[in-house]
Amino acid sequence: MPWQRVEVDRELAPGEKCAVKVGDREILICRIADNYYALSNRCTHSAWPLSGEPVEGFEILCTLHGARFDLRDGCPTAGPARKPLATYPIEFREGELYVSI
Question: pTM to 2 decimals?
Answer without folding.
Answer: 0.92
